[in-house]
Amino acid sequence: MISGSARGIVVVNTGDGKGKTTAALGMAMRAVGHGMRVAFVQFVKAAAVGEHEAAKRLAPELEIFRMGRGWVAGEPGPDDLLAAREALDFTRACLGGGRYAMVVADEAVTAVGLNLLRRDEVESLLADRPAEVHLVLTGRGAWQSLTDRADLVTEMHSVKHLYEVGGGAQKGIEL
Q: What is the domain extent for residue 24?
């Protein structure tokens, strides 16, 4: 049974295991199946991956916006910081624009761990979120005050990964 409540929720997918973005994509597809529009804002990922092609088939209900410059090793440069700031501002605009029922801030939590954003900046999205809009945040290293404020928190835990035995990323699995 689908709840009649118009209350949006805050979801956090975190942990060291694979599946945080994939779970958020599953929620986005489910939302689209119920007639909702979804903005999927990618804070870190820059390379083209399978979900970008799949989203084209679900457009305009599902839109993916790649705003990151890729993984940052060491201290982020000015362009990295600017890209993260633009992704944050764009996410805020998607939340308040009245167009989307769900907004995913993919790897926004990771952006904090990479020193691209501060915790309070990411948490400000929760305050800016209209009560009826679902907000999904993904990434490694979610902190306590964020998980305390979320309605639903899932931690993906790695038991075994292909990389540990020298395997590379596989199309349809990680690309």
A: 10-156
